[in-house]
Each structure stands twice: as structure tokens, then as C-alpha cells.
User: Fold this.
Amino acid sequence: MSLIEMQNIRKDYHLGETIVHALQGIDLEIDTGEFVAIWGPSGSGKTTLLNLIGAIDEPTEGSLAIAGTNVHLLSDNKKSELRNETIGYVFQGFNLVPVLSALENVMLPLQIKGASSKEAKEKALYRLQEVGLTEFIHHRPAKMSGGQQQRVAIARALVNDPSLVIADEPTANLDSETARMIISIMRDLNEKDAITFIFSTHDQRLLDRVKRLVRLEDGRIVDGGNPLTGMGMGPGTHSVSALNSSRSEREGEAPTAWLVEGATQAPLSDGGTQS
Ligand code: ADP
Ligand code: MG
Assistant:
């Protein structure tokens, strides 16, 4: 059973008289433990797709199952439960509460759920330490850099122990070095804690640590719609792995060179499992 199973998903937006066909027949399966980038130009449907995967929005047509449950059949309560218990979100532009410290921002989702301050604080401190922010826990967002704020947002997404984290353009407002660091942190969490990550980006410089690339164009998947099996990857399946080289060694390479190089041939030599 896949964590995410989408079949022939369509999403239309109605803008007055006009209908925007944002997603035009998406078939997508994502397994537990994957680290997936949804990559495509602006307007290709990335945010729309992530909002469906995150049960924030509903498709116009098609079926969507999350962890084996058809989202369409869930009551509103069950859907909130799914969102609160299973999924962590990193929204575009951080969305931190300005008057709260980093620690308080990360504690917030637990406190909303009714956890004690002690438990909320312990879990929040652990997640902030994981993203390397122990020294900044009492800082407010305005006193932090963009990269630090994004790390707070990641810690906040993790504090409920989700099995899936969805991040919409988590590096959009960051310089490329910071962007790489954010992807690295997410990838480390993916490996260490076996958390599934699905994130969108339009920046192909960031894709060398991605296990799987799903390419979106005009609301359609043009590459990478099926999970990698590790053997006999079918046509249209696209593996972009870090291989065994360190990032610094790869830094000088033209992005398209390794993209083509990694396509369809590269096994998951970075130890990723795709069960
Ligand atoms: P991306 O995140 O890749 O930039 P989006 O999912 O935001 O793409 O948008 C896909 C298409 O749907 C675009 O043409 C966009 O203008 C349109 N769209 C997105 N959200 C809405 C909305 N709420 N109302 C109308 N059109 C929308
Ligand atoms: Mg978007």
C-alpha cells in the first residue's frame, strides 16, 4: 500500500466565467520513506498538487487515498485528524507567529492539541536541536535570518511526529547556499527518522539530494509518476540521487549534466530504501 495514491486527479478552479484546469489527470504513487521533489515551472500546478496530498483541498475529479484511506470518504473531523496527526506542513514564506519566540512557535501545534507545556517544550526543544537552532530558541522570527526562520518552520512541522511532511517551495526565498542547507536538513530527517518528505521547487540546482523527481508541466506529470522499485525502473521513472559523491565535489557540475546522467539508469546508491 502506498502512502499516497492518486488516480486520474483533476483540479479545476473557477475564476468568474473562466475555468483554470490546474491539474489535468494526475496518476501518482508515493511510498512511505520517500524523498520526493515536485519540480516544475511557476503555474504548473505544484501548490495545487501539494494541497491535495496534504488534504487541505479536494480534487474536482479522481481518487486520492492517503495511507489507504480514500480522502473523499472522510468526514471533516476525520480529515482534520489526518492533517493534525499524520501530516506536517511547511508553507511558503515560513508563516511564523511574529510575537512568539522560536521555541513558542514550535510548541504551538502541540499546545493547540492540548499537550502540557512540559511535553510541548520537551518535544519542541528536541526538534529545534535537530534543525540546529538550540542557540536561537528564544529569538523572535524578526531577529532570525530567512534560513533560520525556515528551520523553525521545519521544526514546527515535525513537532507532532508526522509521518509525512509537505513543503511548498521551502527554499523559495533563500539564497542558494541556504537553500541547499534546508534540503540537506530535510534529507537527513528523512533518513534518520524515516519521515516521508514531499516538497516542491522550481530550482533544479537543489535536486542532487533528491531520491525521486516528479516533473510537472501544465498540470500533468511528464516524468517520475511511479515510485522507484530499486529494480526495473520503468520508462518515465527518474532517479536523481546524490550517488556517492559529496556535495562539494558536485558543486561545479552543470545541473543538466547530472540530471541527464542520473536519468533512468542510476540505482539508489545512496542507501535509500523504497519499500
Ligand atoms: P505552481 O505552484 O506550480 O506555481 P499552482 O498550483 O499555484 O502552480 O497553480 C496552477 C494553476 O492554477 C495556475 O494557472 C494558477 O494560476 C491557477 N490557480 C492556482 N490557484 C488558484 C485559485 N485559487 N484560483 C484560480 N486559479 C488558481
Ligand atoms: Mg506554488
